[in-house]
Amino acid sequence: MKDKIIKDLFGYWDQLRGERLAPTRSEIDPRKIKGTLEHTFILEAVRNGAPRFRLAGIEVCDLLGMELRGMPIDALFEPVDRKMLADIVTDVFQAPHIAQLRLCGQLAGGRSVLGHMILMPLRDENGDISRILGAATLDHELMRPPVRFTIQSKSITRIVSKQEMPLDIAVEGGMAEPSRVFQRETKRPPTKRQRPNLTIVK
What is the pTM of this model? Predict the structure, then answer.
């Protein structure tokens, strides 16, 4: 999370959720994310197809040069990566996960622009995770829309509530499920007590 806008939005989301897996949509206060608001969006799950924009900041709308409300998120992506995007979004809703994407968009004249996106789960009024809070940023100013992206890399992190975490991890306030450390077992030579008293010699 080197991008400041994405880092700030994540910090706000993480503070809201506290010890829960995810905060609720109604807890989001636009006044407290003024610095990220133009890059922020909220998605809503639909029965069939990609989740759709409920809200989108002006910088996000500028990526396609039009109002995005009601449009599916995969409109921002090249067809070749829409299946990957669908799998990522499903993980955010169901596991739930946080997804960070490194994006590359092709512009007219063969030029390209790099960007970042983060997707974080939100609960609705019924307590179900059916919303996503996200942000999209570009490394450089977009001179001319539209731009559609391919996914250059992704980082998927499973969220663990503090109630589910071991005490020593929960006290530290960690977000991710602790990784399992692999240690190869090594055989040590027997000590004197372990050595047999008799040895057979042919």
Answer: 0.79
